[in-house]
Design brief:
By secondary structure, the protein is α/β, with parallel strands linked by helices. The protein has a single domain (3-311), classed as Alpha/Beta hydrolase fold, catalytic domain (Rossmann fold, 3-Layer(aba) Sandwich). Helices cover 27% and strands 18% of the residues. It has helices at 25-28, 51-55, 79-89, 101-104, 109-132, 147-158, 236-240, 253-267, 279-283, and strands at residues 31-36, 39-46, 65-69, 94-99, 140-145, 164-168, 191-195, 216-220, 272-275, 295-296, 307-311. It has an 11-stranded mixed beta sheet with strand order 2-1-4-3-5-6-7-8-11-9-10, with helices on both faces. Strand 5 (140-145), helix 6 and strand 6 (164-168) form a beta-alpha-beta unit. Helix 3 packs parallel to helix 8. The protein is globular, with a radius of gyration of 18 Å. The N and C termini lie far apart (45 Å). The mean pLDDT is 93. One of its GO terms (cellular component) is extracellular space. One of its GO terms (molecular function) is lipase activity. Keywords: Secreted. It comes from Pomacea canaliculata.
Amino acid sequence: MRSDFRCYNLLPPYTNTNFHLPQSPTQQNIRFLLYTTANPSSPHLLHSQDARTFQASHFDKNRATKIIVHGFTDSGSSSWIHEMVGKLLQKNVNVIVVDWQTGAKGPNYFQAAANTRVVGADIATLILTAQSLGAAASSFHIIGHSLGSHIAGYAGEKVHGMGRITGLDPAAPLFETYSERVRLDKSDAAFVDVIHTDAQPLHEAGVGIRNTLGHVDFFPNGGVNMPGCPAEKINWTKLLTGQITTVTSDVACSHNIATRYFTASINDNQFQAFPCASLDAYSKGQCTSCGSGCNNMGYHAHTSTSGLFVLHTAPSYPF
């Protein structure tokens, strides 16, 4: 095991994973895949502790860097990731895909949730290595889906001056009711924006967090039952009892569609969102004007306004 990934325990606040300790980066086979405009389809493999792998690649320290992190049972080769990479490269940025497929595999959700701590620490090490070559912490933006959102939080907690984190329907099971130390929160980066798409109340078994987490939190369609999605076939009970081996769109459409909303927001849809005092106010039809100031869900979210925002989306791309 790498020397800086040895000291993990289950003392508070890390009591959320049913006595599962995280596996090492080697056991999880964590890979960092760099895409740039010079290599848009053939990624360069970076090593978090080896600056030479950056120097041998097309990594540009003067460009912004987007880091994409998948969630439970997913992988770095998923179609939504390739689609997002392509759109991001149009912005002339470095794009790093974090593939922790082995550590994220089902059906043991407890182990995958525990593994997020080490994946986040490895990403932080990667960023620190890039900083040693002259990259600024503020130029990094981590985009995490589901468990990947909390991984982003762990990374941001360890990187002083982290620029931005976007949480795409952060996973609720084993995180929502626990300390901010074990989940994404707005202290993890200079700007944290969150898109909630499967935020059913706990008793209705939603798998996305319902509580606000960031500087800005977007709840398209009230955060539940996304247009074009069938009823969810995944819930907390199935996750925690090992009945889920893959979180595909046919069983978790509303949970997964957050990734497509973000991809669409890069170039195809500004997703204007209205400020709202609460989801209850939204359900009463009270949030239909810019009032104190609108914001844009996704890539173009900004810091000029903060709080909870709502909007309606269409059932098909670009929504």
